[in-house]
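Dear Dr. V.,

Thank you for agreeing to look over these. As mentioned in my earlier message, I'm a first-year student in the group and I'm still getting used to reading structure tokens, so any feedback on how I've presented them would be very welcome. I ran two proteins. I've put each sequence directly above its structure. The first is here:
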Amino acid sequence: MKRLLLASLLLASPTLIGCRPDNPYKASTWTKQLDNSKSIEQATTWLENLGDPSAIGALGAAWEKQAHPVRLLQVMINLSRPLTPAQAEAQNMTDFAKTGRVASWKQTMPFLIKAVNEVDEANQRSVDSAAKAADAIGESGLDEGLDALIEFSQRAPSKKLLLSQVGAVRSIGKFGATNRTKAIGALTKILEREAPPHPKTIRELDQKKAAGEKFEQYLAVTSAAVNALGELRTPEATKVLLLSMYRSPELFMQIRRALVASGAGVEGELRKIIRGEHAEVNALFAEKHLDKFCGDHGELPPDQCVVLSAREYYAAVVLGDFYSPASAPDLINVLKQPAAPSYVFNDQPGPSQHNAVLDALRKIGAPDGADVLKAQWSDAKLDANLRMFAMSTYAFLARDASGVAELVKIADDNTANEGLRQEAATAVGRLAVSADAVGALERLADKYAKASAEAKVKADGQPKVDYDKAKAAFDAANKVLKDAKAAAVALSKDNKASTDALQKSLADIKAAETTFAAAKAEEQKFGLVYKPLEREVKDYRAFQRMFQTHIARMEIAIRCADSVECYANALKEPKDGSGIAGKVGKYIKDIGQWTEDEKKLLYPAQIERAMLELGKRGSRSSEFTDLLLDNAVADDRLIRQSILLALPKIAKVPCNNCEDKLQAAIKAGEGKSTLAELNVETSMLRNYFSWAGGKTPAKAEGAEAAEAPAK
């Protein structure tokens, strides 16, 4: 195949037709052609297809002479890469099909360095070459190129060089194995740079755009540095990452990932922040006044400034990613502080530190604090949203059913906040193990079943009769109109059609439109009466099913009691709920009337309760780690979330396949909007296992070994 491909190129060569003194299958034949402007492209193509690294020097010389064309540099990069025999064979490079091809980065490196060092913003060729070169230096892993990358990355970001600089920063992170200290130092220096003014602080409209561009450029380069440090998984970067978390909150998600990958020592620093004992963070807050919002331009008087909880909020979010029961007391103490927004954006307050703490406690799942949360959700004076969040978290901490009776009372209270009632019912489903609690939810389900039936009787009376009649007339009028229009189109194509026929066709359309408009008005009029009633039937039925799925949560806990194997086997049930339907029939009397779609609600409900119970039993459930990992690829949000919450509590460390299987779950969730947030959480868990339970778990210097899962 290679010979045929090259022969076709040879036939098109005006320099070799008629006289062929040189072998066209030797690189030296074509390197001679690189100085000829008419043959340089063809020569470059031949050299690329031959794959012989001996051409790199000549290509480099031509690249310099031709003012840095990207095409030549890319071919040099391609020739520098090593190939296995199989790869060479697949690319029809027969000279290397038996032996493979060794890397030739040393030959290309001087040109790569020059492309980066001598980049000219006014020359697009030069800019594009610098971008290619920056990536290639990182790929090569040769220390000779690191200084060029560092010097380039230290330049002030600019619009034209931004992609090249981001590539350079990204490549610095690939030197962790060969020149780790130098790479970390360079990346740290990028994070320590002072940020340009935020565009929202600029009053002058004509300056906002320029300020916005500079700020975006700063964020792009800084973000690349954060990601590179995250890939290096280095505890040395903990301090600068923590400070960057507050300097550049726009990059919080990337910084969060990097911190979680940096090792166990990060947890202690975060706990210092939570307690207000971290000297560097405290100094930053004092210098930048990060604990108050006094307007975008600092225009508000002191008594009108908004107190912020950014220090506790961001630290609490990341603490949750370490799944350490030891941090629970510090987090619980934050709940005793007055709730305050973490930030203010466009005059709207962000979530409070209490939200972050509750989410962290839910992930950690330690029983400490269950009483504090019970006191919160029991307090009718507190904000309903905070009570709901506390109620939701409580079910993940509590180890007994002592709060169930009060939760049932809230769920059954017709005067209570509707959202609070629903959250209370969900908490009952996550905690209760008694027939009494089942009975309470059965009563609620029956109440909504009755309401649905009554609404259906009302809807199916005269409102339905009137609407069905109007709908039939509308459908008939719609058909007549479509037929009239179709007949008119057909007639317009008939050359023999008379003027009278055409005029009649138009009259038919007009008459049909008049009838259609009247029918549509009637259909809408009666629809305004019937459709709300029809929706009411469905809404009541949805509430009925919601309470019944909570019963399904309780059913598995009653059936499995303390058997971890029974809970794990829930993952082996048919996902359509067909197997579960028979099990819950004892409590859900109308299960035979459920639609196929309604039965699908049973599986995720029971999985959530099963994973919750496995997590609470800690290391007793460790034998099912692989089973949970294999099911972490689930597309269902509730199933994936429940498995992620259980894994760090049951997995023994080191976990030899946790990283690989969680990476597979991340891959499975890519591009699925409903899993975007959970894919972030999956990434955090993968990073956690990279040091706490990976194949080669890393420990921060001086950090204690990872503890066994909490029971």
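The second protein is here, in the same arrangement:
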Amino acid sequence: MMSGMSDSPHCTRDIRNLLRAYNLLVATRDDERAIVGRVSRDWLQSEREDWLQLSAINPSVFSTVRGREIICDALLPDLDANPELVDLAPLLSQLPNSEKLINSNSLAKLEPSIAAEILLGVMLVGVQRYGNRRCGCKGLTNDVVAAAMIRDTIGLTDKYSAVLPRNCKTIDMDTIVELFGEGISAHVIEINHHHNDFIDAFENSTTHKLTLPRPYANVIAAIHASQLRIVARAAGDEVFANLDGLKKAEVQRKGFNCDADFPERIWLDLHYSLTKAALALEGVDYGALAEPLEQTLMMSVADALEQPGKRRRLVGRRGKAVYATHNSLPLIESFNASENLNSIATLHVAALEMMQYLERGRRKSACTMLGHSLRIAAVAEKLFGEALEPSFAVTAILHDVVEDGSRPIAGYDQSLNNIKRRFGGPVAAMVAELTDAESSLAAQKKAEATLLCDSLILPEQQYNFDRFTEMEIEPTSIHEPYTLGGIITKIIDTAISEEEGIRDPDVMTSWWRHSGIRIYWSYHVKGKVIRPLLVKLTQEIERYNADKESATSILSEELIEGLRSLISFSLTSSDNYAVQNLAIISDEYGLSGDEREQMIDAFFNASIDHSQFKSEIVDTLLLEQRLKNKIHEGVVPAECYVALYTKSASAHPKPDADTFIKYRAAALERAKIAKRLALDPIVKTDSRAGLAEVVSLYDLRKAA
């Protein structure tokens, strides 16, 4: 894939392990937050992305660094004022009458705990490459780095190992061996052993006597420095003081006092002391780890502990605890990602970029934006194996950072030109391809253009290398087809979004709890992009199989199998999402269990034509009076929330089964693609059993 851009186009063992480590972190720890650890589903639901009235925000939020930035951006859009010097009183007086909306992802939140593991990896790779006076620390291998990142997953539940929570497996050492091999599992054991020794020595004030092997000493130091960094951001953002009632109660049940003048101080002090002791361990590299941290993070935290008012300096777009710390690390300061597209170090830098800009980012599900992007790259590795080019994984991680890291969404000034400066023109061009233009039809038009192409296109064929470095980076034209990397990212991105909806229907709110918007999104929004792309891939696979001698040079047996797995993954995900939507419709109309099963069976039964389906299901089971009864009971807000009615905002939406019937037709077309490509052997589990589990999960979430 995209072999013209690289001297090393294949996914190496080290890169495979890093992507699997990212996936394991998301699977086990994406519901953990800085300081407080694992949080409830109610907490996750309260954080999901939404547009909020500025007037509904707690006024105390606006006295924080981030809050001042928000209110200035919203109420003084034409004045680039210094938020710290603006008189808040006149602005606060405008709030009750303000109709301004802000994205909830711009509000400060406790950072996902996996952010610390990403930062840990960046710190350690910096020591690996630039430690020992820039000669490199050879003993700090990529296996040690991966082991350090996943060390705390032992004993946790892998939520992606099954559909139903009760069937999910617990991570143990056998799982680590299966995923990563004996070498990394041995390092996990060693790291945890040495870390326990360090904690014991710290509690007994004897860390100065502790002697550890040099690679592990650096790991222990990076573990505590990365934890201190995420605690420092929470302290600077004053998150605890501005938690809502639900979160405050949950935090207080864990033993935290949110009402103190500086509630994060005890944890900031503890992690500062731990990090100071860890950085002083014999064997910790000074120039590549201790020095950059002491002159940024440690110095700024010490100031905040001595003078609490200075904790505001920890955060902000150029805050000392985040921006300055990250940019002082050798991997960020010295490594040229733009000239090393397929390096494992570039993957680490991409993950840090995503984490730095989208730490507040939450999706409409229970997933963080960071977790979503890491999972896309990890699924690509699972589907394509060695056929995956690392530069594609970099693009997959970064694909949303421009849209969601922008000032209106996350409060940052992320842009395609920033990506170009950090990662070079090729990556920026591929991210641009996946960045939505202003037109809502852009992705659909690009997919249609892709279907009309003679063959699949590589990024360098689409843009050429001169344009990679000279072009004005912006979202690509609606007339330009997707490249192969763009196709793969789009398909996996949609499947992961469907997966989130399947796993988290209870976290969704308002329109997204009901069949209307979900089926409209699936058929008209994402479907009109994904369907042409799947058809195009199917055609290319069939062409390759029909005449391998004349097949396009970018395809190989390895890549063909990856594309088949990709299509199978997409088809299964869409079918699962459809089943859940049918279960939602069943509730909206008050169907019995037998009637629900009848509807689901008929929906996927190709021997029943659409007129028969409409007669036996739509006109017989989905009756208007049944819906009215559920509206009266409060199960459904109004008819327009349901897939079988128009989405008009008028008081009298009209019955309209057209989209629902087309949605079923799309499901039957998916079955035809599976048959054309003989995909049954690729599907790991029985499809009917899988659909039944989706319904069971929906019932479980609904009951909870």
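From my reading of the second output: The first strand starts at residue 32 and ends at 33. The chain is about 60% helix and 0% strand. Does that match how you would interpret it?

Kind regards,
E.
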